[in-house]
Structures are given as structure tokens and as C-alpha cells.
Amino acid sequence: LSKENTEIINISSYMQLLEIKYQNSYSLSKEIVNKFLVDSGYKHKNIYLFDSFGTGDTREKVTDIFIKNILNRQNIKIPHNDVSINLTHVDDICFSIINSLKYPQGDYSISSRHAITLEDLAMLIMKILNVNVTIEKSGAAINYLENIKRLPKNIYLQHKNKSLEVRLKERINEIQKTKNT
Fold first, then answer.
1. Where does residue 143 fall: left (phi above 0), alpha (psi -120 to 50 degrees), or beta otherwise?
2. How far lies 33's CA from each of 19, 61, 107, in Å?
3. Helices 62-71/164-179 angle, 10° precision
4. Vertex 46: Cα angle to 60 and 18 (nearest 5)
5. Phi, psi of 165, rounded to the nearest 5 degrees
């Protein structure tokens, strides 16, 4: 790669924005890539992502786990303390990343307006499905969003004017179709 003619968009984890004591091996490995880009002199942008969900996702993230548990009438397990996530649909992430091409080098974030607690997310999915399951609360977890001291410029753009509830319905329908095939 020619450093002069190349600009790299480095997709980063919001966990990298936390103090080192809160980071995991994934965020630390992402930070190594960022350090390499800086030390090697590549033109680049770091775009910090939060929790995501959407079409074709196979990572078994929290949204899909909740949907599948509720569809199967299984209990939801969450910490006893409130833990918030910033939930962004993958279409909005892709749209925002493409739009980032017009921005100069630097640090950016894609943070939707959908900050929601795990309990509220489970309740919303139950409401959409018109199914109630038990929410079991045990243990404590760190609410990482509260520990972010500096959030880079937010470049979130909504791809389509769809609410979180509509996006969740779309994902539920997709999961139900794959379950029935």
C-alpha cells in the first residue's frame, strides 16, 4: 500500500474509549491496529462503534439472544443493576461509514439515539412479540457507557427513517423465518 494514496477507515470498538482497566482483549487488539496506523504514518480515520444488530447478523449479540429466548419462551438473564447499551442498526452504521468518506482524518463515533437498558430492551421485544417471559436478575455488571470520558464527534446518520421498534420487528421477522426453515 502506498501511504500517500491510501486512507484507511479503521473500525474501532467503543471499549477503546474506556480506561484500560475496563478494556478486554478485543478492544486492546483494536488499539494495537490504531497504534500501527499512527506509527506507520498512514492516513486514517478511527470510527468507534457501539452495540449493533441487523439483517444477516450471525454474531449472537444481545439483541438476537433476547429475541430468540423470548420466541422460545425462555427466561432472560440480566444483571441486577441497570446496564445501558447504545444500539445501532447495521444499515445505519454502513450508511454512516460511507458518509464518513467526506470527513478529514481523525476520530469519530457512530452513536445512535437508542441508548437503552438491557431490561428495557427485553421489555420492548416482549411487547413487540406480545410474549412475556421472566427476567432473571443476578450479579452485577459494569455499565460501560457511564465510563466513557470522551466521545469523538458523532457522525451517526439514520439510513431510513425507521424507529428502533420497527428495526426490531424487522430483525424478529428475519429470525422467525430462519427458525421456520
1. beta
2. 18, 24, 14
3. 60
4. 65
5. -60, -45
What's the rounded Cα separation, in Å, for the pair 19 and 54?
29
Return the SS3 of 99. Answer: helix
How does pLDDT run across 18-34, given as a tens digit for each residue?
999 999 999 999 999 99
- For residue 117, give the H/E element and its range: strand 115-117
Q: Helices (DSSP H) in 61-109: which residue ranges?
A: 62-71, 90-99
Contacts of 19 (CB under 8 A, 6+ apart): 147, 149
pTM for this entry: 0.91
Q: What is the pLDDT of residues 138-171, one digit of tens each?
A: 999 999 999 999 999 999 998 888 999 999 999 9
Alpha-carbon separation of residue 59 from 54, 55, 56 (angstroms): 10, 11, 9
Cell of 38: 499512527
Q: Of the candidates 57, 42, 48, 33, which has an alpha carbon nearest to the alpha carbon of residue 5?
A: 42
